[in-house]
Amino acid sequence: MAKTIMVVDDSATMRLSLKSALELNGFKVQCAGDGLQALTLLTVGSKPDLIITDINMPNMGGIEFIKNLRGLAGFRFIPVLALTTESKQEKRDEAKKYGATGWLVKPVAGPDLVKVIKQVLPGA
Amino acid sequence: MKIDLNFPGKILEAPSNLSQLLKNLMWVMAITTVIAYFLHFWVHNLISLPNELEVAITGAVASFSTFTLVVSIYKKHVGGICDATLQTHNPCAAQHIFIRENYRQTVADLSQYNAVLGVQLREAVAQTETTVLGVVGRMMKIHEQSCLQVDRIGSSSEIVTVTQEQVLKNQNVIEALNGFADSQSAQLHDNLLRIQRLSEEIEQMRPLVKDIADIADRTKLLALNATIEAARAGDAGRGFAVVANEVKWLSDQTNKSAQEISDRITQVAGQARIETENARQTIADNVRSNKVISLADNLSSIEKRFETASVHLEEIICGIDTANKIIVEEVSVVLGELQFQDVLRQRIDHVNNGLDFLGGFSEKTQLWLEGTAEAQNLRLTEHLNDLREQYVMQAQRVTHNAVLGIKPPAAGESHLKIELF
Q1: Of residues B6 and B268, which shows the higher confidence score?
Q2: Which range, of A67-71, B63-67, B378-382, averages the lowest pLDDT?
Q3: Which of A113, A115, B224, B347 is the most buried (most CB within 10 A)?
Q4: What is the ipTM of this complex?
Q5: Which range in A30-34, B75-79, B112-116 is most confidently predicted, on average pLDDT?
Q6: Is B325 inside a domain boundary?
Q7: How much is the pLDDT for B258?
Q8: Is A96 exposed, middle or buried, given 0-12, 13-18 or 19+ CB atoms closer than 10 A?
């Protein structure tokens, strides 16, 4: 059965390119425009197998989203990958502290992304 | 109107003229005092006047001469200085107004200039976004078409497989038919041979029947002779006559049986001829059925050619499948590379934020030059530092440092593109 991945990014280009690249590789994809929208989707029943989130977003950024996500029942151990242009080490450390699984700097080629997903999502 | 760069020089000349003027005035005062002193003695010796009048006349003459001297010196020096000062001040004031107005206009223009650049950049970003979204859409259409082709080819592949299975079944049926036809033909030949042999054997019985009839005729003739001889013998030959009659009866019966056997042989022989003819006809029909076998052979040959073609088709299908996998991988790579638009958007957004700030800064400066606002405390270089703090990308910081000649900090940034915690 195809695994479901949630893409959280404020850029329409990023959402579409990631959705297309992941669907090409057999994943189901859900999209959200920022952390707040993603949290809303998750609280109304969406249950992805993995989340890919941007860090710098309006309304609710990626780090705050991860922090809130880990507080939601049923999402404590879901793998979360940060996909961002941010390069500050302190931001990485912060994301790690709040429970991010990995950090990827944009742009990331589709095959590399799929390789990472398969590493963190066994059976994908 | 150009700015006269000599203005500060001209203004600085004025204090030296003033100092000369003061020196001259001091000399005039000293000389006037001496003249007044001697004039007082001269007037006192020349005429005798009341003391108060003498002092008044001397004072008046001294004052007049002093006033005349001061006026003449003032006219010569101070008037010149004032004229020179006015001549300097007026253009200077005009230049100051011009500079301020020009600067105000420049600052006002700068706001518009920034606004235009900002909107242009934002529209360019929007345009790249629209284009990239279009490219992604088109690439997905290409992939869809590619998948459809693979599906179609997959259906063809299934048809080929089913046809191959059918061909195999047909081959088995044809082989069975061929075997059956061969065995039938051999059996028919055997049957024909057996019928022919039986017919011949029956025909060979016909002379035996004739022999039996001859024997019966001879036996009848012998019985007749015996009857004649018995009659000649009289009573002695009566018993013999009975035997002769019995022999004659047996002979007749034998003849009768022989005739029946002959008739039966004729009938069986005729039946055998009919059966032989039928068998021949069946064999002839079987030979005609060989044409079906030939047709089956042709069909088999077609099937073999089809089999070769299907193997070739399978190779093509495999090739297309491999090509499709490459297309998927390449599309996947390109989709990743399209993320450059988001990177570009963020960098341009940052530049736009800087331009927006510059626009606001210009407007405040313009208000200050127009005298309606206070001077700004912030310098642009300070905001440049704020701008640097807001960067998110390593590339942005590298560019910033390179332009300003700043040595990059040793730590604080990670260079790993992918890191799993």
Answers
A1: B268
A2: B63-67
A3: A113
A4: 0.87
A5: A30-34
A6: no
A7: 84
A8: middle
Domain for residue B10, yes or no?
no
List Cα–Cα distances, B171 to B164, B175, B297, B313, in angstroms: 10, 6, 10, 21
Summarize the confidence of residues A70-90 as an average pLDDT: 90
Q: Residue B395: closest CA among chain A residues belongs to which residue? A: A87
CA–CA gap between residue B210 and residue B246 (Å, rounded): 22
Domain residue ranges in chain A: 4-117
- Structure tokens, B198: 């039986």
Architecture of the domain made up of A4-117: 3-Layer(aba) Sandwich (3.40)
Residue B311 lies in a domain: yes
Q: Which residues of B touch A (CB under 8 A)?
A: 129, 132-133, 136-137, 139-140, 143, 328-329, 331-333, 335-343, 345-346, 392-394, 397, 411-421
CA neighbours within 13 Å on the CB side: how many for B199? 15
Q: What is the CATH number of the domain that holds B306?
A: 1.10.287.950
The arithmetic mean of pLDDT across residues B4-15, rounded, is: 55
Asked if residue B190 belongs to a domain, the reply is yes
Q: Give per-residue pLDDT as tens, B259-284.
A: 888 888 888 888 888 888 888 888 77
Measure the CA–CA gap between B75 and B277, rounded to whole angstroms.
Answer: 170
Enumerate the residues of chain A whose CB falls inside 8 A of the CB of residue B421: 96, 100-103
pLDDT at B408: 76
Domain region containing B225: 155-316
The count of domains in chain B is 1
| Beta pairing, strands B418-420 & A102-105 | antiparallel
